[in-house]
Amino acid sequence: MKAAIMGYGTIGSGVAEVLEINGGSIAKRVGEPIEIKYILDLRDFPGDPIQEKIVHDYKAIAEDPEVRIVVETMGGVEPAYTFVKTMLEAGKHVTTSNKALVAAKGAELIALAKEKNVNFMFEASVGGGIPIIRPLNSCLTADEIEEITGIINGTTNYMLTKMSEEGLEFDAVLKEAQEKGYAEKDPTADIEGYDACRKIAILTSLVCGQQVDFEDIHTEGITKITAADMKYAKTMGRAIKLLATSKKTEEGYTAMVAPFLLPPEHPLYSVNGVFNAIFVHGNVLGDAMFYGSGAGKLPTASAVVADVVEMAKNSDKNIPVEWSSKKLKLVDSDNAVNRFFIRTEVPDRDKIRECFGEVEYVEAEGVTGELGFVTNAMREGELAQKTEALGGVLQMIRMA
Ligand code: HSE
Q1: Which of 1.20.1050.10, 2.60.40.420, 3.40.50.720, 3.30.1950.10 would CATH assign to domain 2-128+297-313?
Q2: Considering the chain, what percentage of its residues have pLDDT values greater than 70?
Q3: Residue 237 near residue 263, CB atoms below 8 Å
Q4: Using CA positions, which residue lies closest to atom 4 of ligand 1?
Q5: pTM of the model
Q6: What pairing do the DSSP bridges indicate for beta strands 371-374 and 360-362?
Q7: Known catalytic residue: 231?
Q8: Which atom of ligand 1 is nearest to the CA of 199?
Q9: Which tens digit of pLDDT belongs to each residue from 277-333?
């Protein structure tokens, strides 16, 4: 079985490494060895044994009938989209780790793969090495999935864990994360929640079988979380985590990415450092949790190669995936109901009662000149009006 890799960066080279390390057992599972015939990259790798496989024109892969499986590990929507589309049109199976591509073009590429009787798979696009796409498509098919809530960004989970453990401010932790390679030089996509947003858009699309546009998902990152917030969290016995969540409600599907304060009994409370975890609730299954390495070279490559194996085992057929291009309208996030932790520099309890009714006050060691409190449950839209009426709001974090 001949395959090709498009993009020889961290994940692409990881795919070659996994096929090298575990080639023998993979060949047994498939029934024949998987051989990398081409590697597409802009660069050359002189002295590297893979150099002889390097091509600079994707058409060399598309036009070679011997190549049955193509791995896309380039990242970004273009030119990955054009290349993947060409490969599917040429009757090749494609797997990708590229969440930007899957979130934007998933429905279209799944439909094209079906038309061409091949497969478009994307296990590695969410949760790195943790199996979640195949479980949703193949294992949890007896259920109506009513909730998916995950910690699905390793960079931000590492940073929040460090802030909580060491009492450091956001900027100091970001700098350290960048030095250690846990955050990119340009960390925007992770710290602003855009990465988690694309991942929950993919999961929600699979659950509802329709297109969920990531632009429609209310998304907040972690850039406003401070050392003082962590002190309040400690008093409450809670942990601040960036959650990506989608729920099926009577009004329709809701989805959101935002920092939440989790109590110790929450299934995601103990997910620390770069680890990811995804909690799934099905109407007949009840609860399930998927936990593990959500990023990194070999864990992500492991998921990509698992797709390669699946496609090699099903090389003559399309495995159906329910994700139509019909757009799903999410419930307006203003209607979501939550309790909120609020910090205000208006230390006026009468005014707080006037705006919010009875609240629970929270103290934080060493934090003065402000009040912290937790509201009763209310709609997001209602909260916006009340905080405006109160004024001087320094922080708002949802309670999980
Ligand atoms: N930047 C991502 C993360 C990589 O930290 O989770 C995996 O998608």
Answers
A1: 3.40.50.720
A2: 100
A3: yes
A4: 295
A5: 0.97
A6: antiparallel
A7: no
A8: 8
A9: 999 999 999 999 999 999 999 999 999 999 999 999 999 999 999 999 999 999 999
